[in-house]
């Protein structure tokens, strides 16, 4: 149990920072400084322990799914819903949930953690369950190499006390199994005919690995725009989905495998599938807003594989397209990644608006794929305004990096209904 | 001008393709096409037969594990690469392959990875990783814009000249202000970004050498470099 005065102080900072519209991590930072044991002590009281979800792509959406699926099984779940996936984001989220006595009324904590922060986190708080999604080229300016990132995920897996759920189709993730001796290990994966839809970075320039012979617990068998077929253990289920984008649907397989590992034999399959059908994408991960009666889809892109899957998931025909690329710390400063994405699918319809700090890098990239561009404007506000007015009667789609997405969402929230991130 | 073919060889795209260096191949391919040439892009991976006719050779960076995979194979094709370099075939080697084109890479733990010695350079692994935006200058190419991400530090011998002088960033090493190395028409560099899109003057140098070697002269109408000026301006002002 955390010290009472820390709880009260933390909650006060949280209230104050929300009043001035500040970031979600500040109160967590304050608590972390005053009582470093705050998170551990609070989470230690949970009967079903702690779940850590990490990997390069899909953490936020997968975490959201896992939470909703666990809730369908009657569990009360604590999570870091704010998308602030650093340790102090967890502390900040805890402050919002605990009462003034410092008690957390939940059965289980499901936490999305950035790879580097997860390594620190598991050292203090070994999770009972972990789910490792993928390791892709991303933030190489922070981590240096993909193999370095893979080693971080290995530490998370090895610190897990009960079950580890791994992606069979990502070679660096699947081989983590060889390091796990005391933990239960299960895999999620794709049917053989779907594997080619998810090229890894290694496959990009012809380095494809043969699919492994490991058995999956959950497999995505097939999907179309509105529904998907999964194999759960030895049972096949077909369900409608509100999620769009093939990467979100593959993440659903990951979430199902994790929930099966947590709940075990008492799992209520019908309730599970009903809940899955109701899950909506997390903010900026294919979410749809409405402006002037027309939908605007926001697609977060932060690394080559994510951008490639985004382009593959959403057909450009009939849509006005905008791309917004920033290079702030959270986006990654290196623009090299844009050259590992193939934009030729946009050739027939072109791109209507290119924006963000690195708008001209993006425009240059499109030029070398011979994609026509209507307008380039690095200023996000002006670009958005122009994009909306010039394409008033069309459905729209915006591919954007993380900080560009936060900025665009804030601007859009002034003209339409946007769900608050906090 | 149709029927004039230029063959680009990409070295080890399977193992050495990190950091978007594929952009260099794409830029050369498109510019050659825009200049009116036909382009054939070949890949050379470990164990492949080295093609007979090659006009331009490109290589990229890789993970440390990727470098180990290709090292033995690279030593085998070294005599052929040396012969082509001596003959004036233009080459662009970035990061990992830049290091392996040198004499050796001595890791921080003291292991020595032998290079092919085509460039008179030596590289030493350091604990500090040099990461960030880079601006360099050269008499021939003017301002060179890129992004570095390496822990090996490279020292130049008398057999090479630097590609440029560092204005922002680290470049070859933290002891001097040089970036990259040149021998004949071979350019080695630490710069990603990819380097060629924002530095078309270097792309056109490689193209000019390749075409001149094969057809005696390179002449073409300017193709226009839309967006490049603005992209360079923004990149040179971003935080490291």
Mean pLDDT of chain B: 94
Helix content of chain A: 25-40%
Assign the CATH class of chain B: Alpha Beta
**CATH homologous superfamily (4th level) name of chain B:** Class I glutamine amidotransferase (GATase) domain
Separation, N- and C-terminal Cα atoms of chain B: 43 Å
Assembly context of the chains: heterodimer
Q: What is the number of E strands of chain A?
A: 15
Please trace the helix and strand order of chain B, writing H or E for each element. EHEEHEHEEEEEEEEHHH
Structural domain tally of chain B: 1
Uncertain spans of chain A, ≥5 residues at pLDDT below 50? Answer: 19-23
User: Could you name the CATH topology of the largest domain in chain A?
Assistant: UDP-N-acetylmuramoyl-L-alanine:D-glutamate ligase
Largest sheet of chain A: 9 strands, mixed
Task: Walk me through what this model shows.
The complex is a heterodimer of chains A (422) and B (240). Chain A is an alpha/beta fold. Chain A folds into two domains: 48-89 and 106-200 and 211-278, UDP-N-acetylmuramoyl-L-alanine:D-glutamate ligase; 285-413, Alpha-Beta Complex (Protein-Tyrosine Phosphatase, Chain A), CATH 3.90.190. Chain A contains 16 helices and 15 strands. Chain A has helices spanning 4-19, 26-34, 38-43, 59-72, 87-97, 115-124, 140-143, 146-159, 171-174, 201-204, 246-263, 269-278, 304-313, 359-368, 380-390, 402-413, and strands spanning 50-54, 77-79, 108-112, 129-132, 163-167, 184-190, 218-223, 227-232, 235-240, 285-291, 294-300, 320-324, 351-355, 373-377, 396-400. In chain A, the strands form two sheets. Chain A has a nine-stranded mixed β-sheet with strand order 2-3-1-4-5-6-7-8-9, sandwiched between helices. In chain A, helix 1 (4-19) runs antiparallel to helix 2 (26-34) and helix 6 (115-124) packs parallel to helix 8. The radius of gyration of chain A is 21 Å and the shape is globular. Chain A starts with a helix and ends in a 9-residue tail after the last helix. The model of chain A is unreliable at 19-23 (pLDDT under 50). With 240 residues, chain B is α/β, with parallel strands linked by helices. Chain B has a single domain (5-237), classed as Rossmann fold (3-Layer(aba) Sandwich). Chain B contains six helices and twelve strands. Chain B has a six-stranded mixed β-sheet with strand order 2-1-3-4-12-11. In chain B, strands 5, 6, 7, 8, 9 and 10 form a six-stranded mixed β-sheet that branches. In chain B, helix 1 crosses helix 5. The termini of chain B are far apart. The model of chain B has no long low-confidence stretch (mean pLDDT 94).
């Amino acid at each position: 149990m955390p010290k009472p005065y820390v709880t009260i102080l933390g909650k006060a900072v949280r209230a104050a920072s929300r009043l001035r519209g500040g970031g979600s991590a500040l109160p967590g930072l304050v608590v972390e400084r005053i009582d470093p044991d705050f998170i551990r002590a609070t989470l230690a009281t949970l009967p079903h322990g702690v779940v850590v979800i990490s990997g390069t792509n899909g953490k936020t959406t997968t975490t959201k799914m896992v939470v909703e699926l666990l809730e369908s099984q009657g569990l009360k779940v604590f999570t870091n819903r704010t998308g602030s996936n650093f340790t102090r984001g967890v502390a900040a989220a805890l402050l919002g949930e605990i009462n003034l006595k410092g008690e957390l009324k939940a059965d289980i904590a499901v936490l999305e953690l950035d790879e580097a922060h997860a390594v620190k986190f598991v050292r203090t708080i070994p999770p009972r369950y972990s789910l490792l999604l993928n390791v892709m080229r991303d933030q190489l300016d922070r981590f240096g190499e993909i193999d370095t990132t893979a080693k971080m995920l290995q530490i998370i897996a090895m610190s897990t006390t009960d079950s580890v759920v791994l992606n069979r189709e990502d070679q660096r993730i699947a081989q983590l199994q060889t390091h796990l001796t005391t933990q239960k290990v299960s895999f999620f994966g794709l049917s053989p005919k779907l594997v080619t839809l998810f090229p890894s970075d290694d496959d990009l320039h012809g380095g494809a690995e043969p699919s492994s012979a490991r058995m999956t617990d959950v497999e995505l068998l097939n999907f179309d725009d509105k529904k998907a077929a999964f194999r759960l253990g030895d049972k096949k289920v077909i369900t409608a989905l509100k999620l769009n984008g093939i990467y979100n649907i593959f993440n659903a397989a990951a979430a199902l495998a994790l929930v099966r590992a947590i709940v075990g034999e008492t799992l209520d399959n019908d309730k599970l599938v009903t809940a899955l059908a109701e899950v909506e994408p997390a903010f900026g991960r294919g979410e749809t807003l409405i402006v002037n009666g027309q939908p605007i889809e926001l697609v977060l892109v932060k690394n080559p594989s994510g951008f490639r899957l985004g382009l593959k998931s959403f057909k450009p025909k009939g849509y006005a397209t905008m791309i917004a690329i920033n290079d702030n710390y959270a986006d990654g400063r290196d623009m090299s990644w844009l050259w590992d994405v193939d934009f030729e699918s946009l050739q027939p319809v072109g791109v209507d608006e290119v924006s963000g700090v690195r708008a001209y890098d993006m425009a240059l990239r499109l030029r070398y794929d011979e994609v026509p561009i209507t307008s380039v404007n690095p200023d996000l506000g002006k670009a958005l305004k122009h994009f909306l007015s010039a394409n008033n009667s069309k459905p729209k789609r915006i591919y954007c990096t993380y900080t560009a997405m936060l900025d665009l969402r804030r601007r859009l929230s002034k003209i339409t209904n946007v769900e608050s991130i906090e | 001008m149709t029927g004039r073919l230029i063959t680009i060889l990409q070295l080890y795209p399977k193992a050495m393709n990190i950091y978007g260096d594929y952009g260099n191949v794409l830029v050369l391919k498109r510019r050659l096409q825009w200049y009116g040439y036909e382009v054939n892009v070949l890949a050379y991976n470990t164990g492949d037969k080295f093609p007979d006719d090659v006009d331009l050779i490109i290589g990229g960076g890789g993970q440390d594990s990727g470098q180990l995979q290709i090292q033995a194979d690279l030593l085998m094709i070294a005599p052929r690469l040396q012969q082509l370099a001596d003959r004036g075939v233009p080459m662009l080697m970035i990061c990992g392959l830049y290091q392996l084109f040198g004499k050796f890479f001595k890791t921080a733990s003291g292991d020595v990875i032998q290079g092919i010695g085509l460039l008179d350079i030596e590289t030493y692994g350091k604990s500090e990783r040099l990461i960030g935006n880079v601006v360099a200058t050269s008499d021939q190419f003017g301002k060179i814009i890129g992004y570095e991400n390496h822990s090996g530090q490279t020292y130049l011998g008398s057999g090479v000249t630097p590609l440029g002088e560092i204005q922002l960033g680290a470049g070859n090493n933290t002891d001097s202000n040089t970036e990259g190395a040149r021998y004949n028409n071979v350019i080695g560099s630490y710069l990603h970004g990819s380097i060629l899109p924002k530095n078309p003057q270097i792309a056109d140098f490689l193209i000019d050498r390749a075409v001149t070697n094969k057809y005696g002269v390179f002449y073409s109408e300017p193709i226009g470099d839309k967006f490049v000026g603005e992209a360079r301006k923004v990149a040179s002002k971003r935080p490291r």
